[in-house]
Amino acid sequence: MYCSEECRSSSWDESHYIECSILPTLQKLEISELSFLVLRVVIKACETNDLKNILTFLEAEDNVEEMKGFNNKGAYSSSDYSSIYWLEAHSEKRITEDLFIRSLYAAYMLHCLETMTDFFTGIDVNQYKYRVGGLLLRHFQNLLINNYCITESLISKEKNLTDIELLGNVTDLGIAVYIMLSLLNHSCDPNAHRTSHRGDTSVLRAIAPIAAGEQVIL
Predict the structure, then answer these.
(1) Mind listing the pLDDT tens digit for each residue in 14-54?
(2) Which GO terms describe its molecular function (predicted)?
(3) Would you list the domain boundaries of the chain?
């Protein structure tokens, strides 16, 4: 369900024309929200850039540690796929069972893309299929720990509700990736707080005095 015809049309052009046919299948997975995000990130990356160019650039970055996440102009931008690809995945810290199940998820999604969509139209499937599978596997790891809930506050018409009851009227709409937020460290005593604003805009607010040069922590 979309909020408007404009929203629906925009979503269709960006990624939904591919994902629509396989979303019901992916809903059967236990991690359906994460699988939707992984799928959309890869689809939009390949729609915005040529797949071959993406893979070539990522291989070049892999050889130079200082380049990871930055575009060819040296900027760290949320609009560039490499900044999402190089978000920390902690692959080396994952147990074998975890890597195995995420590999299965990636293989299943790759199979769905190949057999149920036009994703590989105009692409040499034999040459690029497994490399796309590698992108999916990467994101089943790094987006698991770098996603943020998109929420919406529901204002109740009931009277005499306490502040706690009002704060509890929050609905989760989905998850998204915000690369700048992923650069911030977590703390049990944070000095900043993140909220959703008008859909998928994420707002970071200070909840304690932050001195110049002091680390912002969530």
Answers:
(1) 788 899 999 888 888 777 889 999 999 999 998 877 888 88
(2) histone deacetylase binding; N-methyltransferase activity; protein methyltransferase activity; S-adenosylmethionine-dependent methyltransferase activity
(3) 5-142, 148-206
